[in-house]
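Re: the 469-residue chain
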Amino acid sequence: MNIRPVILSGGSGTRLWPLSRAAYPKQLMPLVGQESLLQETVERVSDPTLFSAPMLICNDEHRFLVAEQLRALGCKPEAIVLEPLARNTAPAVAAAAMMAAPDTLLLILPSDHYIQDAAAFRNAVRQAAKAAEAGALVTFGIEPRAPETGYGYIRRGAALADAPGCRKVAAFVEKPNAATAEGYLATGEYLWNGGMFLFRADRFLAELGRLEPAMKAAVEKSVAAATRDLDFIRLDKAAFGEAPAISIDYAVMEKTKDAAVVPVEMGWTDVGSWAALWDVTEKDEDGNALIGDVVSVDVKNCYIRGESRLVAAVGLEDVVLIETVDAVLAVSRERAQDLKLVIDKLTAAGRGERLSHRRVYRPWGTYESVDSDQGFQVKRIVVNPGAKLSLQKHAHRAEHWVVVRGMARVTRDREIFDLVANQSAYIPLGAVHRLENPGKEPLHLIEVQAGDYLGEDDIVRLEDNYGRA
């Protein structure tokens, strides 16, 4: 079979704040196992007898994180396509379809879902492929385990004679209230909408052109004007911005007469809340999922996670408690879906904690703010082996670099010299400079910035390995 996985990784991940943030969303984090949700998704479609190399679609800010996680798996993708701005899932899928051969079967997968039974998933894909090859637009319906109000539902219709295991879609329905969800569960006719799809590229584009012609035209222009940027394909921003921001469900699946569904039980969750993550995380005899340095006494059915320090809890039940270096969240499990109310308040207040962690990821490594006050800032910088920062200069600050581990190669105007642990360098205001790691181990150093303005936008890049100059 020629099934091309298309993995969508454009989400902002705010539903798992404060661990997941816009600059480092949940799909890039190891929330359940040792690998990130994105990496688990890629491995789920790694069988070469069933799948070809995946196509990743992500936003520009995450491109190097996505590329690094693929490299760590040894995965060479068909392409990493960069969305210039968020337009929901339908335009992203349209771009993928336009880049594929017309008869290619496209398997559309979110990058932030968790599936416990990968074999059941692959078996469902095989069943769906028969219907998709015949022209159906197939989705995957999850056999419901509870009257869940956080998911949309699919009502299954008649069986497809030529595709065993597949059924017509009788109706897509919105997220129900509790009473309606109870009724859906009692009938046995309804499935959770898992947000995964399989169809021929040409069939999807034909339906998109019929139902959303303006979107198809805008994406066609964006793909035609796309450019190569290192290992990435960058869609044209102006044309892509003309596409309506609509999900694939609303744009096509809920309107087409050719929708089919494969019912499947595979231990699926969209990890859409802390309560959902508690469901799939290994728990102790008291029903607690305890991650990090946690001490608990008389605690039951809780999800407690410490990222940077000791977390102690006494007498809690059905509570989510999340600690990060710059924020703490406490919420009852039954109110976990209401986290959006907190995010809205943070947004209204202009709080940076909504967007990024104190540790910021860059293509060359990471930096973390350790301390700051009027006129100075202290950062811990880690540079990956063989990596280098851009050749740059600053208009408002000078910098002091102290190496604490590894080797640093420093460019300072016309000088180039190496530093090892306990050695330092001074970078005067306005000096053209670069930091790189020529060694085989990560380089750790402390940077002290001093000046009248210390924002990240006080960087003039003269040369850059990552296309940012």
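The chain has three domains: 3-269, 281-347, 359-463.
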